[in-house]
Amino acid sequence: MSVAIVIGGSAGIGQAAAVALARQGRGVILTYRGHPEGAAEAVASIEAEGGQAVALPFDVGDSASFPAFAERVRAVLAETWQTDRIDALVNNAGIGEVALLGEITDEHYDRLSRVLLKGPLLLTQALLPLIPDGAAIVNTTSSSTHATGATPGYSVYAAMKGGLVVLTRYLAKELAPRGIRVNSVSPGVTRTRLGGDAFEKYPELIAPQAARTALGRIGEPADVGDVIAFLTTDQARWITGQDIEASGGWDL
């Protein structure tokens, strides 16, 4: 049985990716931190379509917990799917916090670093013994790393996501001898819970963002989740070390 793990799979892009991976016939482990109801919703959606999923609590910003989490994943794999391997890892957990240069603090920098860059690196390391040759890893990055469309206040966020783009290339190089492909997906403006569920609270923000998108709307989670799921398949077997933009033509 092929099993995927989606870190940050309780809402938005992560939830959509978990559902898309399950539709490929995979078992899915998805994690949540502060949104257990979203995790339950994702599991229910997968099970309603005949799939199988398990939701686990996890904080990607707490690297000291990673060895214990890896053992918990190992136990779930054995109990639920009678396997000891993960064929696809999606590093999607994220936070979005805005701070202009004069407002950046050590705490702000460290918090974003722990979740957006340090977390994916050390978690991939912790889970690597469960990842077999020929598997796929996908990291969620951001169009904020691109030369166009820089938005004041997102300097630390974009810097960490940019670091993840570079890390993706290096992991692809290091893991290539094992046939493990590593790519990242760079969403544009997408309707998610980041930023305190901003689009739900402030729907007037949607039209200006849609106007900057060539295809004329903001992204939906499935627009990006489907790309993530595709990159784990054999159809994407010749793609590695790439940052794939899935933005509908943001600032094109």
From TrEMBL:
<dbReference type="InterPro" id="IPR036291">
    <property type="entry name" value="NAD(P)-bd_dom_sf"/>
</dbReference>
<dbReference type="InterPro" id="IPR057326">
    <property type="entry name" value="KR_dom"/>
</dbReference>
<comment type="similarity">
    <text>Belongs to the short-chain dehydrogenases/reductases (SDR) family.</text>
</comment>
<dbReference type="InterPro" id="IPR002347">
    <property type="entry name" value="SDR_fam"/>
</dbReference>
<protein>
    <submittedName>
        <fullName>SDR family oxidoreductase</fullName>
    </submittedName>
</protein>
<dbReference type="Pfam" id="PF13561">
    <property type="entry name" value="adh_short_C2"/>
</dbReference>
<keyword id="KW-0560">Oxidoreductase</keyword>
<feature type="domain" description="Ketoreductase">
    <location>
        <begin position="2"/>
        <end position="188"/>
    </location>
</feature>
